[in-house]
Structure formats: C-alpha cells, structure tokens
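FAQ: What does the model actually see?

It sees only this:
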Amino acid sequence: MLEILALLPVLAAPHGDGPQKPPAGPAGLFPASSYAVVEFAGLEACRSAAAGIDVWGFADQLAEKVAGRSAAELVRNEVLPEVRRGLAQAGFRPEELAQLLGGRVALGVGRVSFFDDEPMPSFALAIDASGGRAELAERAMLVFRRLMESEAPDPVTERREISGFAIDVVRSGSHNGAIGTARVGDWAVLASSPDYLAAICRTVAGAQPSMAQVAELGAARQERGEGALLDLFVNVGPFWDALGLALPYEADPILGALGVQRLDGLYAAFGVGEGRGQDRIHAAVTHDENGLVAALLPRGGASTRLASFCPPDVLWMSSMGLQPRDVHAGFERLLESLPNEARREVHREVFVELARELEREGFDPVYLTELLEKVGPSISFAVSMPRIQVGVPQIPTGYALIECEEPSQVAGLLVILLEKTGVEVKTVGFEGTQIHYFRVPEAGVPLAPALMPIEGGVLISTDLRSLKTAFRRSADAADPSLADDAEFQAFATARQAASGFDLLRLQRNVAAAYEAFKPLLEGWVEREGGPEFGLEVDDLPTGAELEGMLSDVVVALSRDERGVTLEVESPITLGSALAVVGDLADRVLRGEQREQKNN
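And it is asked to produce this:
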C-alpha cells in the first residue's frame, strides 16, 4: 500500500465516459464529509509566482555567478539521476512529470476504510487532466493498475457506474482493500477507497453537499480570492460534534466561559502577491461576544494613533486591543466554571503566587490592579531607528501609547508603581501638562524613559527629548510623521478591523542601512569576494534595487462573527517558499533555466 500511495502524484488518469460536468474546483469536488482537502495550484503557477519575487531572481543569478551554475542546475545534478531512474520504471520522462503536475492537483482525505485488514483514512488524488495532460494521465493509469495487480496476488477488476460516472475498481479477491479511478469532468481522480470515490461522484452530481458548501470554509475561500498556491480545508465540525458527545457535562460551563460554541473548520491559503508571500489562516469559530476569547481579541481593537507621534523612519510598530477589565471578568467566569479542586489550584498558582512575585519585585498588586482596570481600549508600541552612520553608536528610540479614558490617573498610577520599585521619578512641566521621567544609569547609554498624559491616553518614550519631539510632531503639520506616509495610510485603512497587528518596515530601513554599509561591502568584494567567489562590485544591487526586492512584514490577527483570521505578508512565508521550491522543481524536471528580467 505504501508503494501505491508514494506514486499517487503520477498515477491519476482519466477513465470512462461519465458526464463532463466541471466541479467548482477541489472544494466542489470532494464531499463535505471529507476530513481535509488540499489543493496545489501546480508547478506552472509556482513558476509564475516565483518570477515576481525579485529577491529570488537576484539570489538565483548570484548563485550562478558564484558557483558557475544556476540553482536549478545544482539541484538537478544531485537529484535528477535518482528521479529519472524511478520514473523510467513507470515509463515517464522528467519533463512529462513536470507537465502532468503543471496544473492543479488536489488531495482529499475521507472517512476510514480498510486496506489489508488495517483501518486507515481514505485518500483521493485529483489531477487536472484537461488538454495535453490527458494522454500522460492515461499512461499513468496503466502503471498504477499494474502496480496494484502486482500487490494483490488475485486481483479482480470491475466497473461500476455511480451518478453517471464510470468507476474502474481493482480489488483483491482474498483480502480487504481496493482502489478506484474515474474521470470526473476535467479531473482525473484516483482513490484508495472506491467508496470515497463514489462519494466524490455523487457530490459532483449534486446528490450531496461538497466542501465548498461547508458555509464558513467556502466563505473564507471566496474572501481569499484567487492566486493561492496551496489551499487547505480542514473539516473540524464532525469531530467537534463527536467530541461534544464524549465530553462530560462539566465541560459545558468551561466552553461557555471561553465563549466558544462551535469550531466548524480551518481554512488556510498560502500564496504570493505583489512580489511577496501572502498567507492566511482562518478558524471558523462560532463564539459568544461575552466570552474570554472575545475579550482577548476585541474586534477592531488595534490602533494606529501612535503613528502621528512617530517619525517616518519607524522600523517596527505593533498594536493590540487591550481591555483588562473584560479579560479579568472573562477569566473570573472561567475560574468559576472549573471544578472546585482545579479552581483552588489555579487561584493559588495565579493569584497567590503572582501577588507574591510582584511584591518581591517591588510592585504593589493593589495599584497594579487599579491600573489595569483603567487601561484600554488599546496599547501600541513603535521603534524608530536613527540615520545609520558607520562608526557612530546607534541608539533606537522606543515609543508607546496606552489609550485610556482617564490619562492623568493612569499616568499617576504608573508613577506610583515606579516609585514603589525604588525608582526616583522626576516631574517637569511641558505644554500645559506634566512629564514624568527617570534615569537608568546602569543602561550604559543616556537613557531617561518618560511618560506624559495626553488626550485619550498616556504617551511614553525611551528618553525625555524624544517624548517632547513626539508630542510636538503630532500638533505640527510641517513636521512629517509616520501617519503622513502614504503607504502607512493604506496599511492603516486595510487593518481597521484588526484585533492586533505587527508591522516591520523592512523595505526602506534595510535599504537605508545597506546604503550606509555598501562602501564596506564593496571593499570586501574587491579584496576577498572577487578573488574567492568571482564577484564584482557591479554584481551588488543599488539601494533602490534592494528596496524594490524587499517588502514590509505584516502580521495581523482579527476576529469577526465568522471566526478568527491570521494574515501574514512577508518576503519569506510558506507561500513564497512554496513558489521557490515549485519553480526549482519545474526547472529541474524540464531542464530549463530561469527567465531573466529585462531591466
């Protein structure tokens, strides 16, 4: 059986003369009872996506310059001989495998069936068999049949008709186990269980719902749109229902306190867009707005207000919704829902031990509790890098904004907590309010963290001068801030509904650092890089070229009535890695080189 599963990628084939009703992609091909469905967009899609990743193109060209061969050639020399020998036994050439896998491929995992008297999930592989791939898939089918017949000493072949589709079944006459193949529209489907294949045929014929009709998963796929290289559907609903029947009644109040009513499934999409990786994971969770999950992930809780106080050269910015009162209330409800002994243990570990540790560090739990009651709806952080100069110490500046309804009281409580730890806090008047600051002599650099109440929050910085500058920047239209940056404005508009986000602004900051250190890098190339690696100064990109290759990193978490969604955009993600690996695999199998861009 392992040998059969190992050859699934090359052994799907069209067969029979069933109706040519095209399914709505793999989500419409597999029944809703499937455990999971994975759709791969194909090697051709990977190659197209990789062509837009400029940093990959530069790395590939640099590898060819250093090693004298492209990355594909290096890989080809290592793996292609083994691949060629394995394919030769199946009657395929590497370029034919690349063509077969160039289109969409989908793998479904269905209900348990028996094979060789062992229970195992059912698998079904579907390959796009339209156009020029049909003949290759037909040959692959013949190889698969021979393999199955060699595994079963007394094979029996039969044909069935399910919902108008012809299914060929090969089974053992004396043991459990059978495989089935069918042509379903433009898909060639190969299954380790004929029953699962029959369910696929009934699904395409409209006799039963598909994965696309699992409401939350289908909606998540539609919202993601086209362009993903890999889509993953995990159908958790049936397991959740079964788990609910197995859990004790005491679990109900715990789930109620968490606010989790049902988990229908997970949807993930990994791809590339605008030259950067774009990954998205959505958990379809039916939940209560009064539960702990909702308190931890307030809808639209993240704020971009701190950007108006920060200079345009901010390297990192982060914000998250924070309502300690709601979190505390939710945690109290969760604690009350626990069995008595568990509740006492959690109370002892969390409240008693935590209070003891805080007192040991000098924090008064009474004032800390009062502070947390007044904080919210969000807290934001940012780090700004000064202009990089070689040989000059670089001290980043940090900023924070605690948004709250009573800024003066929150600032006063922060001062009290600092003084309780033995810090000498000084106060100075500024712009009609007061700034509180203290020295940190053990830091090794001039460091005087400062805070001040402002309208709607408390503004904090790592030094007194930066705090004053930040406050004036927000009121002076002539002094540009991060909020004035057009790219950041687009980011802020796109993340209005986020519960929390992180923004790492690599593009400009890395390019600026590169420009500062480029003379040193050029010197290394002239002294060592050239003689040892064959590099030339002209091989190095300019700062503008490097900036064009890179992209900022965005991580955002949001919650709405449909569930929780995590989004990641970055030069390096699972989606961009898949594009590069798929591009390499396609070029290795086809023996082709990467197309060079004309600049």
